[in-house]
Specification:
Layout: E1 2-4, H1 11-16, E2 23-25, E3 31-34, E4 39-45, E5 48-53, H2 59-66, H3 73-83, H4 88-93, H5 104-113, H6 119-133, E6 136-139, E7 142-145, H7 150-153, H8 158-163, H9 170-181, H10 195-203, H11 210-221, H12 231-241, H13 246-257, H14 261-274
Antiparallel strand pairs: 1-5, 2-3, 3-4, 4-5, 6-7
Helix pairs in contact: 5-11, 10-11, 12-14
The chain binds a DNA duplex (13 and 12 nucleotides) through helix 6, helix 11 and helix 12.
DNA sequence: CCCCAGGTCGTCA
DNA sequence: TGACGACATGGG
């Protein structure tokens, strides 16, 4: 067990808001999450974060990265309110909310699965994939399955994927797995791209449109200037500003929130989807 | 039985 | 370019 003291973290909102899909809430109100190589249990004790894992090697560093603890959100939020004072209510509500830094391959597959799908169903599908192809990990007497590496899943067939309830997205997943395996597509190249090129590169794959690509860039690459506009953000913009089209939403957020548009969109999504006072 | 979900694709004008 | 239906699946 390790402890990170005195941090400003809303663990519940950060875990359950819909950015990650594979976690369990425990009876003691802690959360068990599955990272790329280990299982971790997280619990807030006042302002301290208590962390347990089946593998404690390098654990604090990994969690600091995963939960984005070393980014100065206070400063960013202050700038956002300077850009748009009317957004202060939302920003205040989102104090302590973090963008989770997700493993690239899992994030890619997760958001391909997410299209025209429901969070509970996305979780189920990702769990099915992990059970079939991922490594087994035992943590506190329970069995968990890591998300598979490309090597572990590369021999799957479209029929296999369909059986795991991926639906019509089976062919998209199959295609991109094969492209990665044949070195025709490389997630690591995106690290050195600007957002515009990264979007183009991701969207050159079937099954990845603007929304999915934006989610991947925001959640795996921390490109906070991309705009994952989904149904909830559309509802927010429609109800708040009577703005309808994706194009107009993009223009509006770009003008107002500039380099933090992605983060602000995530705040809108979170408040609209998860907070009853804004429904 | 209809509607919808952190959308995208193919088609047709 | 823009509109529109289809797409698997399961829950409300």
């Amino acid at each position: 067990m390790i402890k990170i003291k005195n941090i400003n973290l809303k663990l519940d909102d950060t875990i359950t808001c819909g950015q990650i899909f594979r976690y369990t809430k425990e009876i003691d109100n802690s959360y068990t999450v599955i990272l790329s190589d280990r299982v971790v249990n997280l619990k807030m004790d006042e302002c301290d974060l208590i962390i347990k894992s089946n593998n404690e090697e390098n654990l604090e560093f990994i969690i600091r990265d995963y939960l984005d603890l070393d980014r100065n959100y206070e400063l960013i939020n202050k700038k956002i309110v300077e850009y748009d004072n009317e957004f202060k209510l939302i920003v205040d509500e989102c104090t302590g909310f973090k963008i989770i830094h997700q493993p690239k391959f899992e994030c890619l597959i997760s958001y391909i699965v997410s299209q025209n799908n429901r969070v509970s169903m996305i979780s189920k599908v990702l769990d099915n994939i992990s059970r079939k192809y991922g490594k087994e990990v035992i943590f506190e007497g329970k069995i968990y399955y890591l998300f598979p590496t490309i090597d572990e899943i590369k021999d799957c067939t479209i029929e296999d994927l369909r059986q795991l309830k991926t639906g019509f997205r089976d062919k998209y997943i199959y295609e991109i797995i094969n492209k990665i395996n044949n070195n025709e597509f490389d997630l690591n190249l995106i690290d050195d791209m600007d957002s515009e090129n990264a979007l183009k590169y991701l969207m050159s794959n079937k099954g990845i449109g603007e929304k999915v690509a934006s989610c991947i860039l925001l959640f795996s690459y921390f490109k906070t200037d991309v705009y994952p506009i989904d149904t909830w953000v559309k509802k927010y913009m429609k109800d708040t500003y009577n703005i309808d089209s994706i194009k107009d939403i993009r223009q509006y957020t770009n003008n107002i929130y500039k380099e933090y548009s992605g983060l602000c969109i995530q705040y809108m999504f979170h408040v609209k989807r998860n907070k009853s006072w804004h429904k």
